[in-house]
Predict the structure of Lipoprotein.
Amino acid sequence: MKNIKYVIIACFTCLWCGCYQGMLFEDTFLDDEDIMLYDEKPFKFDTLCEKTNGATILGKRRYLDKREIALMSMLGQELIVKESVLYNMSYNLFIKLEKQGLFKLRFGIDATDYDKTDYRWGKDGYYDSRERMIFFCHESLIMSERVLLHELLHVFQCELATVRPTVNNELFMEYEVLMIYDIIQQRMRGDVRIHLEGGNDNKVYADFIREAALGNYTFNKELLRKLFNDFFMKKYSGVKPNYEPSFLFYFLGGRVVN
Ligand SMILES: [Zn+2]
């Protein structure tokens, strides 16, 4: 009887240890899976967004409400999952904001009818860099990928490439964002219509966009500066830009420009 007891205990111990061992293996295995399932820098787009309640800010400007924030975050998440460059820039922005302990991005609607002389006239959206806030000019645009992507690029341009939105810079900033927009569209969707510069008909510009979209563009600051100036001057009949395309440097060189 005594022997049987020992055998039972021994078996139970073995079973239990085996099971425990199994659990440990399972845990290790799950840990490996976790690493595969989640990026080493887990990041969700809505961690960039401040929760707001739709309240009025000033005049016809108001914050997005919770439901609108959720809808727009879904679209933002889709965008950053689709394109790793956007993911990386969003993540870098998130880290920067965390480090500075300053803010999250805020989003709102601006239904103001701006005067033709105002830079916001006729726009679908804009980034107010002082308030660090993206405004959509109509409620329907919170679900527009085109507008959100464009405004996000302005955020990265101002916050990561430290471009200053001044009266002088405004036109060049817009142009730089449209170039990068063309590159990202090309990366996300393959060979699509290019927006700027007569699009696909302008071989030099189209080739530049396609090459940059492949991601193996040999980064040469001087050449890039020259290309930017040439493209811009052709578009705006000989106006020489008084502007450093820092966001292009950052975007194509994959580094922060101070
Ligand atoms: Zn713009």
User: Anything to note?
Assistant: The pocket of zinc ion is lined by residues 150, 154, 174, 177 (CB under 6 Å). Residues 128 and 134 are 6 Å apart (CA to CA). Helices lie at 2-37, 66-82, 84-100, 145-159, 170-189, 203-214, 221-235, 246-253.
